[in-house]
Amino acid sequence: RQQKHPPLPPGPPADPIIGHLRMIPKDDPGGFFYELSKKYGKIAHLRIPGRTMIILNSAQAAMDLLDKRSGIYSDRITSHVFELMGWAYNVGFFSYGERFRKHRRMLNDYLNHKKCQSYLPLQALEGRRLVQNLLYNPDRFGDHLNRFSTSLILRIAYGHEIVSGDDPFLKIVSDVEHCLSECAAPGSNLVDLMPISYFNGLNEGLFLIVKDLPSWFPGTYPANQARSYRHFIDLMHDYPVEHVQKQMVEGTAQASFLRNHLEGLQREGSDYPYTADDIKGVAAVMYTGGADTTWSTLSIFMLAMVLYPSVQAQAQEEIDESIGRDRLPNFNDRPNLPYIEGVLQETYRWNNTAPTGIPHCSMEDDIYNGMFIPKGSVIVANTRGITLDGDVYKEPRIFDPSRYLRGEPYPVGHFGFGRRICPGRHLADSSVWIAIASILAVFNISPVEEADGTPILPKEEFISGIASHPKPFKCRIVPRNEKARANAENGYD
Ligand code: HEM
Q: Mind telling me which residue stretches traverse the membrane in this protein (predicted)?
C-alpha cells in the first residue's frame, strides 16, 4: 500500500506484529504524544494491530484535516465496551452517519449559540449560588464546583432544580463520573475507544472474542467491568425519564428538553422524528457530557490560582478597577475584562481537560503535505501537544494570562474539531467564565499551611479519565474583604 502512495508521516521504529503498542504509556498519553513531536515532527504515525494512528501535535494540521476536511475525518471507532456498559445511545461514540446527524440536531436545538444566550441569567444565578456555597463551606469546594457544573444542565435537560446536596440526580451523576474515570484508567473499559485503548493491547477483533467468555478468562476484564457498571448507566438513562413522566402526569413538569420531546412523542407517536431511545440518549449525553468536563476545567482553574498568586492578584485588580467592589461580575462585564478572559483561556490551555480529545477516525485515504493517511486511521488531535507548542507559546508550561495581551493566539482544540466539535461548548464557556469571574471577585485562594506556616503547594498532578482533572488537593478559600463577603452573602439578584 505504501508503495502506491506517498509515505506515512514519520514515526519511531516499530516492533514486528504489535507495532508501537509497547511504546505507548498507560499514563499521560498526551505527554507521550507531545514528546514524539520533538523527534518526529508535529505529525507522526504509530502502528497498532489492525490500525494506523496519526498523531497531530500542530493546531494548523488539526484544523486543516479535522475542520477543513471534516467530511472525511468525522467517524469514530466502534466501542463494544461502551455499548456493553449501556452507552449505545451516546452520540459521542456513534459512527458518522444519519443517526449521528439526528442526535447532533437534537443537541443543537438546545445548545446553539443563540439559545445559550437565553441561559445566561440562569448561569449568573448559579455563579452566585456557587460563591455563597464556597463562603459557607469552603473545604468542600470540589462538591460545590460539581453542583455548579451539573445544575444548569439538569434544568435544561430535565427541568430539574437541585435544592440540596443529597439530590438523587447529583448522586447519579457522581456514580456515572466514577464509572467513567475508572473506565478511562489504564487497563479498563475504554480499551477499544480512546487512544488508551491501544495502550492496553485489546483491539476490536480480540474484544469481540473475549466479551462473552467467563470472567476468569484472561483479557475479559474490560467487558466484565463494563457489565458491572451497567446498572449505573441504565439508572442514569431511566431515572430522569420516569421522574419527568411522573411529573407530566401530575402536571408539575417544568419546560425542558425531555418534557418537550416526550410530549412530542405522545402526540405524534411513530410519526415523531425521534424515538424514545433517541430522546433518552440525548438527554443523558447532555447530563454526562457537560458535568465532568466543566467540573474538571474549574478544578484546573483552582489549582492554577493556588500556584500562581500573582495572576490571581492581577485578575482581582482588573475586576476592582473595571466594576468596583459593590457588586459581583455579570456577563455584560465580559468584554471589559481582558485579563480575566486570559485566565479563562489559560485554564483551557495550561493543563487542558481533554488532553487527547476523543479520537476521530478517517473515512477515506488522504494525502496531507505529501504524507499518506490511510482510510480507517485513528486521528488523535493531541491538544496537550498543541497547547504546549513552543513555536506558538512562549514558556508554554507557565500559567500566564498576559500572553494573550502580548498577541499569542487563544488555544484551539479544547472543545475538539470539525463536525465532532463539542456541541456544549457555548454553554460550557459561559459557565466556566462566570464561575471564574465570580470566584475571583469574592475570594483569595491560597495554599494551606503546615503548623509552622510553610505553605503546602499542591503538585501539578492529574488523573486522566475521559476528562483529566487535578489529583485532590487542599486550599484556603477566604473572602477578600468585607464587601466581597457581603456580595457573596447577598448575591442573588
Ligand atoms: C469545559 C467543558 C467541556 C469541554 C472541555 C468539552 C470538551 C469536549 C471535547 C474535546 C469533545 C470531543 C470533540 C471531538 O471529537 O472533536 C467533546 C465532545 C462532546 N461534548 Fe463536550 N466539552 C465540555 C462541555 C460539554 C457540555 C456542557 C456538553 C453538553 C451539554 C457536552 C457534550 C458533548 C458531546 C455530546 C460530545 C460528543 C460530540 C460528538 O461526538 O459528535 N460537552 N467535548
A: none
